[in-house]
Design brief:
single chain; 140 residues; mainly alpha; two-stranded parallel sheet; 46% helix
Length: 140
C-alpha cells in the first residue's frame, strides 16, 4: 500500500514544493470535473501549477500472472461497488432521467469502438526503427 511508503500522503509532496494540491474522489466524475475546473481556472489566472490527486482503485493486476495476493480480503469487492461507471450511471438515471437502456447502449458503443481499435492495432505493421509514424487509418 502506498500509505506504507509515502509519509504524509500524495498531496503533501506537491505542497512541499509550493504547488497547490487537492485530493478528490476519483470515482466521482462530477467531483473530478469540479476539481479540474477549479485547477484550470487557478492555473489560467496565474496562480501557477495545480495538482489533483484523484483517488481511485486499480481493479486489475500489475501485469499478466500477478496473483494480487497483497490486497486484503473484500477490498476489491468494496471498491467495485464504487466503480466510476456504475456510480455515474446510477446518478444519471436518478438525477437526470437517463434510461438504463441508453446508458447500456453507450457502454456497448464504446466497447465496440475499443474492440475495433484493438483489432486494427494488432493488424498494423510494426514501425520501422528510426522512422516517424505518420499514417493513421490509411491516410498519408
Amino acid at each position: 500500500p502506498f500509505e506504507a511508503v509515502t509519509p504524509g500522503g500524495i498531496v503533501a509532496r506537491p505542497r512541499a514544493l509550493g504547488i497547490a494540491a487537492m485530493q478528490v474522489d476519483g470515482n466521482d466524475v462530477w467531483a473530478v470535473r469540479d476539481a479540474a475546473t477549479v485547477a484550470v481556472a487557478a492555473a489560467r489566472s496565474g496562480q501557477g501549477p495545480q495538482f489533483i490527486e484523484a483517488v481511485t482503485y486499480r481493479f486489475s493486476d500489475h501485469g499478466r500472472g500477478d496473483p494480487v495476493r497483497y490486497r486484503p480480503d473484500g477490498e476489491m469487492e468494496r471498491w467495485k461497488e464504487r466503480d466510476p461507471l456504475k456510480v455515474a450511471g446510477e446518478r444519471l438515471e436518478r438525477e437526470c432521467g437517463v434510461a438504463a437502456e441508453r446508458l447500456q447502449a453507450v457502454v456497448d458503443e464504446v466497447r465496440d469502438e475499443i474492440d475495433a481499435v484493438r483489432v486494427a492495432a494488432l493488424a498494423a505493421p510494426f514501425p520501422v526503427p528510426g522512422s516517424s509514424v505518420t499514417q493513421f487509418k490509411g491516410e498519408s
